[in-house]
Amino acid sequence: MSETFAVVRNDEDQYSIWPRHRPVPAGWHPVGVAGARDDCLAHIERVWTDLRPRSTRRPETGPVRAVHDTDRLQLRQVLPGEMPCRCVDGHRHAAWAPGYPPAFTRDRVRAGIREAGGSVMYEIMLSSTGSVIGDLGYRPAGTGACAIWYALEPRSRGHGYATEAVDALAARVLAQPGIDTVTATVEDADGAGVAIRAGFSLAGRRDGVRVFHRSGQYEEATA
């Protein structure tokens, strides 16, 4: 029987393969792809397009993209110049899933462009395929608070991706100095379920929709 390998990545965004039956070395993390050696190497060749270590990619001027990894996802910050293309009818990017961007994303991007600043947006990318299946973000919502939002393309719903992404981003936002509360406003039962599984509690209703809050420390959410 041939040996099975796992694709692993380190904090410098460098990839390798590792035998599945052996513990992954410190500093390396599985990306959710496993199989025959050649299949794993083919996946690395598809997704590892910039061979420079992450620490060497910082431009001398201009914004730096924040990237956060979860068990199955990579949250990649959408830079300001990359937002408008999500509002252009018919525009497609090779990494976007067929149903991305959904209508909510287009509306949220238009609102973010109109706002005076402060909104931060992330792509939700599957680590196993490099496909962008949705996005999420946050904006200031008063003293010590930020409001979070998310959207997934239809075929990616029901797999726990939203919970995983929202939980990770809420934890990042709450770790920022001066932020002690993250809010989420949801209109349907699915959105409420994501908020609850990601550690939010119902705080009340506003304009006919439910408002959830999360604050303080929270143990990792279950998908």
How many domains comprise the coordinates?
2
In round numbers, the mean pLDDT is 83
Helix content: 10-25%
Q: Give the quaternary arrangement of the chains.
A: single chain
CATH class of the largest domain: Alpha Beta
At the fold tier of CATH, the topology name of the largest domain is Aminopeptidase
Fraction of residues in β-strands: 25-35%
Number of strands: 11
What Rg, in angstroms, do the CA atoms define? 18 Å
Q: Could you give me the name of the CATH homologous superfamily of the largest domain?
A: Gcn5-related N-acetyltransferase (GNAT)
| Strand arrangement, major sheet | 4-5-6-7-8-9-11-10
Low-confidence stretches: 218-223
**CATH architecture grouping of the largest domain:** 3-Layer(aba) Sandwich
Supply the number of helical segments.
4
State the shape.
globular
N-to-C SSE series? EEEHEEHEEEHEHEE
The main pleated sheet reads as: 8 strands, mixed
Task: Please identify the structural class as seen in this structure.
Answer: alpha+beta
Terminal Cα span: 33 Å
How would you describe this protein?
- The protein is α+β, with helices and mostly antiparallel strands and 223 residues long.
- The chain contains four helices and eleven strands.
- The protein folds into two domains: 5-54, Rubredoxin-like; 58-215, Gcn5-related N-acetyltransferase (GNAT) (Aminopeptidase).
- The protein is 21% helix and 31% strand.
- Strands 4-5-6-7-8-9-11-10 form an eight-stranded mixed beta sheet, covered by helices on one side. Strands 2-1-3 form a three-stranded antiparallel beta sheet, covered by helices on one side.
- The radius of gyration is 18 Å and the shape is globular.
